[in-house]
Recover the amino acids of this structure.
């Protein structure tokens, strides 16, 4: 574990900090970067990294806030993302509040239950999409990539894989929820994989 004041410890070529403490995101994105020349470190690889307030109004604003804040701490290249569920019948909610839909420290289960409660009075299907905006920032260059996957919300959770709203979301053209896909399959179609694969292509160019 690296103390975030020990900046020299991460000043190695091709190391990039992924500005997240979410282990589910970390697994997905590290898998995408497996065969690249870049090594991703997450914030869980460091001690004493303060929480970053995500107070933007859009996914890009929140991703950019994280990327700039972490760059200021370490002065090394950073990738960051913000993502969420956009539900048509809920006027785009939970959107940027997806991770804290049921409250600031809400669990995935609490968020899922609130979503199902909000949809009770709406007819099926419940059209929705997952959106991810990923950004890269190194103090000079800034690059944004966006990925989406459309589908629908179902009434009962299925699947032990993934995290967040994955067990309730069935992508268009599939019968399984995101929570039922193994990681490699999810990384073929997910909003996050689309955004980070575009980011990876930019970094390799």
């Amino acid at each position: 574990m690296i103390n975030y004041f020990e900046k020299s410890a991460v000043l190695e070529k091709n190391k990039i900090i992924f500005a997240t403490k979410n282990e589910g995101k970390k697994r997905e994105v590290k898998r995408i970067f497996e065969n690249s020349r870049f090594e991703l470190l997450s914030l869980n690889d460091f001690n004493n990294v303060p929480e970053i307030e995500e107070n933007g109004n859009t996914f890009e604003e929140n991703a950019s806030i994280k990327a700039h804040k972490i760059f200021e701490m370490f002065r090394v290249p950073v990738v960051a993302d913000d993502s969420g569920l956009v539900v048509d019948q809920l006027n785009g909610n939970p959107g940027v509040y997806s991770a804290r839909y049921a409250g600031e420290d809400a669990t995935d289960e609490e968020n899922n239950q609130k979503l199902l409660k909000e949809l009770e009075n709406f007819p099926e299907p419940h059209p929705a999409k997952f959106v991810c905006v990923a950004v890269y920032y190194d103090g000079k260059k800034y690059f944004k990539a966006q990925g989406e996957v459309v589908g629908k919300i179902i009434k009962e959770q299925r699947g032990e894989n993934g995290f967040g709203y994955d067990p309730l979301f069935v992508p268009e053209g599939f019968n399984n929820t995101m929570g039922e896909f193994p990681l490699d399959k999810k990384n073929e179609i997910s909003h996050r994989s689309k955004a980070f694969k575009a980011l990876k292509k930019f970094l390799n160019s």
Summary: The chain has one domain: 2-204.
